[in-house]
Fold:
Amino acid sequence: MKNKSIFVIIMTVLLIVTSIPLSYADDLYRNSNGYYTVFDENDNSVIFKTAHEVKEGDQYLSGDNKLYKITRVDKEQRKAYAKYIEDVQLPKINEDALTSFVDKLNSGESLAMVLQAQADTEGENGGVGLYCTHSSESYVPTDGSESIEGSGGILQVAERMSESFQENGVEAVFDNTSHDPHDSGAYKRSRRTATQLLTEHQPTALLDVHRDAIPAEEYSTEINGEPASQVRLVIGGRNQNFSANEEVALQVKAVADKMYPGLIKDIFYAQGDYNQDLTPRAMLLEMGTYEQERELAEKSAGYFSEVLTTSLFGGTFEDQTDGGTEQAQPVQESNRGSGTGIIAIGVVVGLGALAFLFLSSGGKEWKSKLGTFKEEFNNFLGRKKK
Amino acid sequence: MSLGMILLMIVTVLIFMGLAERVLDRLRLSDKAAIVIIIAMVLSTIFIPDINITENVSFNIGGFIIPVALGIYLFIKAGTNKERFRAIMAAIVAGAVIYITQRYVLPAEPEAQYVDPNYVYGILGGLIAYVMGRSRRSAFIAGIFGIVIADVIQLIINTINNVPAPTRFGGAGAFDTTVMAGILAVIIAEVVGEARERLQGGTSKKNMHFENGEFVSSLGKKKDEKDNKVIDIKKDKDDGGDLDEK
Structure:
């Protein structure tokens, strides 16, 4: 009996330990032994390259809005194969509203003036909160190193983005707290910064600004004929706010594809939470990559702030809830994704409770435990126990 | 913010509070005490700012002071010195393992993470406490103090290396990793304990002994020492036999 218990404990520990990928936290891109190339399983064409580990089930939305799912991974050859799932329909933009918006911008009016003009009808402008979980991330050609503890180049990119929001008339708060060293524990430390931003400023959106660690060509583009870096949006797939955050990401991409085509590289559906469980308007941004000049990322930070400002407060989306198209709606007024989130919490909690009930009891115990469910709360509800 | 988003946030907080209440209930706190503690944690998160100790060190009421005080209370209330010793050992081992895991094991880049790091710490704390003492209280103490010790290690290393990163103990309040790890550790200990019990075909109270008014694990006890203890069968029955120790 005793041996059996020890066996179960050892197996449980082994199961959990082996499910954790072993790699030195800060060396992901330096020891990657080459890059993964992900192929379309139908025609063997290259979909994308990445220095990161990929695994079966990962999802990826390409720049041209095609959703892929990884089906096979060859670790030795550093190759993976993905299956095309569907063309994703981005949220419908009210062309008239956006054209009028962009025309005003092109005629010299600032975004702040345009927003002020429509502020009475669109409601309050809640602002944006920014922070950098990996505050030491830097850009090698400009900063001289990929990581500078205490003063990473990424802080200047986030600062530029914050200034740009303010130029657009959006209240932006950038918390430049250092969360060094650059490891997975940085998310534990940045969670404290994110919570303080939320409780002290109640921003409409919360942005965690990073830079990526893959080759420069993967992020190089031209915006308005000038070189710039692309932006990757990362959405955490395992929290109750996933649908709401995904909705915002898709809306941001829809606006960017109209205002600055090519600015948004793709949307990566990742496995962690990245503090996105704290609010349904959170996003992780990869502003270019470490092999690029920082100025390219700073330039894109300005473009991105215009795109996010337009998405959040510009009122450029069709209200599709009643099938009508007469009312343009800003993101901050949208309920999309909230229902899915609430249902997801209910399902997870319900299944978890049932699984535990199954595990902890059997047969008649089930009935007995369910029968005494009310009594469990009698004390708390103020009634006397029988 | 839209009504749907406000509802989503309210449901999230309520579910979190419900789960935390169930966990505290398992730690021999009354329902009322549990709910008062949780409400205090949530309200202090929203309304009370961090207490600055030095320029780079601060304490949060809901994420540090309350959970640590609760951990100390549970430690004092532990039935035997052996349990207290195991709780201390579990917390120290958990602190070291959590630090090593966050620094050297889990990948830093978001695209490479298979699971959110904040959940891993609680799982580790729960498993370590269960293996070392098979006690929910030890699991809670190991989860809370494991994170605190890992933060202290980081603070010392940052100070030595002149890294200007602040250490905000429990800075995210009720939603801090410290609290998450404590709650998750108890759940893990409970699930592992129930799974083990189910696999072995019933309660293992027969492998426990009665000491100072309660059942405690007989891990490390000599066989003849166990046999000499009187087992209170009635109390065993009332306890539901759902885990080695309550």
